[in-house]
Amino acid sequence: MTLSSQPLSPLDGRYLSQVRELGEHLSEAGLNRARVLVEVEWLIWLVERDLLGTSKELSLEEKTKLRDLVKDFSDASVTELAEIEATTRHDVKAVEYFVRNALSAMKREDLAELVHFACTSEDINNLSYAITVHDALERVWLPRATDTIVKISRMAKEMAAIPMLSRTHGQPATPTTMGKELAVFAHRLKRQTTKAANQQILGKFSGATGTFAAHLAAAPNVDWAKESKEFVEHLGFDWNPLTTQIESHDWQAELYATISHFNRILHNLATDVWAYISIGYFKQIPVAGATGSSTMPHKINPIRFENAEANLELSCAVLDSLAQTLVTSRMQRDLTDSSAQRNIGVGFGHSVLAIDNVNRGLDEIAISEGVLMADLLENWEVLGEAIQTAIRADVARGTSKISDPYALLKELTRGKSVGEDELLAFIDKLEVSEPTKARLLKLKPHTYVGLAEALTQHLED
Known about the structure:
With 461 residues, this protein is mostly helical. The chain contains 19 helices and 6 strands.
């Protein structure tokens, strides 16, 4: 017995429900639909502007029927294209014949030679990838990423005043607030989504080696560079005037690097939240019916964040590879980009899956203020920084003569656990100004958070 027609990737199997929307754009079918769009729009462009002097026209009804090839693109369209490609052995040529067949059905065979006119496959492909990547970015990835940032920002503001012991190098350090630490991540992630949203998307439409040579051979009096620019801009992209057979893909490499950067920041969030769960700062909310461990009934494992880590790493691996591969093409063209770009959806898919898991994970945790407070009150030695800094200020003002305040506090606190009584007694004996001493005596680990709460308010709504 064999298992046939099973999904090879978990994105198309176990996790399909979480990434399905990407398939609308970054699948082979999504790419072919975009190819049909470019071919149809170029045909209409040639006819409406009568660039070849044919005096032919397309009625409004005929243009609508052609554009319906895109609007109504379906599984039947995919099947028809596959049947054509079985003969052509060329995917873009199959799209050309698909559009020609539609013209035949409309009794407009007289327009057949205008389909794919003066185009190389990459004229169609580069714009088709521009369409599919843009749509996947704008309609799927950015909304999901933005929802995550909004969630983190909301949590940051809710927890802006909740004090927390910092751990620099994993050791007790100057306190902060949980809200401020979450705000750091929201701020970092927002910079990357802004960059992705503003990514320039380029397109070319200039023939076999980017010279318009065939165009001029057919119609030397047409300003083909102008027509190309206006056509690319008509599709919503920026025209690239200097290319080889391919559009150089630099914009894609830039975008994938940005998404990878976002992924790595989100990975950092996932590992930090996991660590906070492990030390009890966050408690996990049990999900009805869920099993944490197959043998230990008490466990609630932070699987959402662990799943996110793995998928973020996979996404970065694919997107980093694409960013590296796509910027190089031997001489005027090679096919390394063709195989590579078919995996764009994989890179996006693992990122979307990770984002979904982080969102779910954040919904399943709650802050444990008592644990945070207990941790703070067990580490009074972190006030050593405040004390030595206040002494140094007094020395600078001439209101104290203590020599080397840093060394004094180092001797008291380094590698030691110092209790409240011991620290207060130490402060009380200090030869400092009365205002400084009074200020230090009032200080507690959970109040030594500086401007943490106020800084959180810098987050954008």
